[in-house]
Amino acid sequence: MVTIRDVARASGVHVSTVSRTFSAPHLVNEKTRQAVLAVAAQLGYRPNRAARALTTGRTHNLGLIVADIANPFFPPLIKAAQGHARERDYHVFVADTDEDPVLEQELIETLSKQVDGVLLCSPRLSNQTIHRLRAEVPLVIVNRRVKGLTTVLMDVGQGARAAIDHLVGLGHRRIALLTGPPGSWTSGEIRQAATDRAAEAGVPLTVVGPNEPTEQGGLAAADKIAGHSAVLCYNDLVALGLIEGLVERGLSVPGDVSVIGIDDSLPGRLNRPKLTTITMPTAAAGRMAVDLLLAAVGAGEHAPHTTVRLETSLVIRESTQRASEP
């Protein structure tokens, strides 16, 4: 069996350097790290993760908990986080809460015994519960601001303002907003930003919700936006469901109603009409969250908290056009 000493001897470095290459790669010079990894691959060396965990107290596993793995918003984030963690010699366990805060808490408590830290994406738990769980395991929150904890935010408010500006610029004066589920931080951010920007433009905004964050949620809301010429939706799934509901009622998009989603997911790009939407930097958020979580794991209970805000942008496609009303 090839040992760590064999790799060190063949690489011309100390055993501790080989150990750090696999346990704390960010502490090793990039050129040295790549040379050690090349030698290890050539010799067929594989670190014993169980033995390393006993020595270092680290599992080199991370948890990643999302609200709904079937939502196309999450897979790019999951993929980016897993790849980024793998480059740092970490594995990621992914779990889905199905929008259920009780299950979310159970998953965090279970994973806390098996991982070094947890990425919590769009959580539905109360801030008080999240702070209590933070005492059990390092946490980084994605897409929700929690005071006193490290968070990665995608600036959905910026996107909502851009969406309202776009619709007003097209001459729409009867605009509706389909919000998301109750307790959603993102939904609250969208509502506040869209309401403020519409007020600045002197255009009334009708808020319709809460709604399920799914196609069914949009479909069910189709009757509630009668009389409006444009709708901003909580996410792409709601927007696609709304478009289906409008078509079933004999209305065309964007001929009768302009529709904007949020996420820039693949279904929206494949839909006809192609969906105008707000692109969210999900992959960048996944990578940033991993880096912040590993920093927190390394710093222990004294880890400082920070908030990173990533920009969003409007992508104009086929589901919006100039308003027909004067």
TrEMBL record:
Residues in coiled coil: none
PROSITE patterns: HTH_LACI_2
HTH lacI-type domain: residues covered: 2-56
One example GO MF annotation: transcription cis-regulatory region binding
Transmembrane regions: none
Domain of life from the UniProt record: Bacteria
Keyword vocabulary terms for this entry: DNA-binding, Repressor, Transcription, Transcription regulation
Entry-linked InterPro entries: HTH_LacI, LacI/GalR-like_sensor, Lambda_DNA-bd_dom_sf, Peripla_BP_I
Keyword Transmembrane: no
Protein known as: LacI family transcriptional regulator
